Task: inverse folding
């Protein structure tokens, strides 16, 4: 039995990892994208109900007052403050933290590559992501499907016109082992279909795809606009390869009032679920009010991409030291 002190990745893999990360930095240097580093701890955090942040207390010496700080789930909020201060295009390779995530593809601590491009539209950013995964990680060119199109291709229904009952009936027929009394939102049912029906089919077909124009209810921090059929869609994309979600990109929301509304709505959902509400990031809202430039941004799970490039099956196979579970 291997002693627990041993690294989780072999040294040769770590050398390849280091070279690939150096190549990522060269990729952005050649495109005049500035590398930045922002704090890991913050007094605020994303409010999205599906994210569970780690948090800790800061106790100043000589004071009984404690201040709660959150470990970042993404460097997004701080990077957007830099964009509002006229940084131009920026990227960051950051350690990020998400509570409750553990498994072959998940770790409570992992490495995220995130970048923002004021010069690029969302589809131009998709082109750049495509260039990165081909040039640095030797992946095949990525195909493109709309969210509506990918569901029509694999599931034979239109996500914008079908009823909730139609979606639940499809889930009952195609996904085994779910509790009979399972209650979920429409988006929750669609996410189940994506995870248990569409992603495995993409993996079996060895397809790398961008999926774009999500339902407006899944906008998160993206703009909402009309598509060609008059549906309200979120101007965002996700990248899937090797049966994994690798990246999430947005045409970034610039309206501070709308963002505050989304934060407050998220916290209301958290209250309904009896989960911890999250302080709203007033610094981010102030930066957006001051004027964040039109831009597109993307967050990419670097270790998952390394797994594909280095043909590894577990996220710990590309990390120097795995997260130790009790």
Result:
């Amino acid at each position: 039995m291997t002693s627990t002190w041993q690294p989780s990745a072999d040294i040769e893999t770590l050398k390849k990892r280091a070279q690939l990360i150096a190549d990522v930095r060269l990729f952005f240097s050649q495109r005049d994208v500035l590398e930045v580093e922002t704090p890991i701890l913050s007094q605020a955090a994303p409010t999205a109900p599906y994210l569970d942040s780690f948090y800790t207390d800061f106790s100043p010496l000589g004071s009984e007052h404690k201040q709660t700080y959150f470990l970042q789930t993404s460097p997004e909020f701080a990077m957007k403050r830099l964009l509002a201060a006229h940084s131009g295009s920026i990227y960051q390779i950051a350690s990020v933290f998400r509570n409750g995530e553990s498994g072959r593809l998940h770790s409570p601590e992992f490495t995220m590559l995130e970048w923002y491009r004021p010069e690029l539209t969302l589809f131009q950013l998709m082109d750049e992501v495509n260039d990165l995964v081909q040039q640095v990680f030797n992946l095949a060119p990525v195909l493109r499907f709309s969210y509506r199109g990918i569901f029509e291709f694999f599931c034979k229904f239109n996500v914008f016109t079908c009823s909730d009952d139609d979606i639940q009936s499809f889930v009952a027929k195609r996904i085994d082992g779910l509790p009979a009394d399972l209650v979920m939102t429409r988006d929750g049912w669609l996410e189940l279909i994506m995870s248990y029906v569409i992603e495995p089919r993409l993996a079996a077909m060895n397809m790398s795809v961008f999926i774009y124009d999500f339902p407006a209810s899944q906008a998160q921090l993206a703009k909402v606009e009309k598509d060609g059929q008059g549906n309200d869609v979120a101007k965002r994309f996700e990248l899937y390869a090797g049966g994994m979600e690798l990246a999430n990109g947005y045409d970034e929301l610039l309206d501070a009032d709308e963002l505050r509304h989304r934060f407050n709505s998220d916290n209301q959902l958290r209250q309904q679920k009896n989960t911890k509400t999250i302080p709203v990031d007033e610094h981010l809202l102030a930066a957006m009010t001051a004027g964040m430039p039109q831009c597109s941004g993307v967050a990419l799970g670097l270790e998952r991409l390394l797994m594909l490039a280095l043909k590894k099956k577990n996220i710990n196979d590309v990390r120097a030291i795995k997260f130790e579970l009790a």
The longest helix spans residues 11-30. The chain has a mean pLDDT of 95. The longest strand covers residues 232-241. DSSP finds nine helices and twelve strands in the chain.
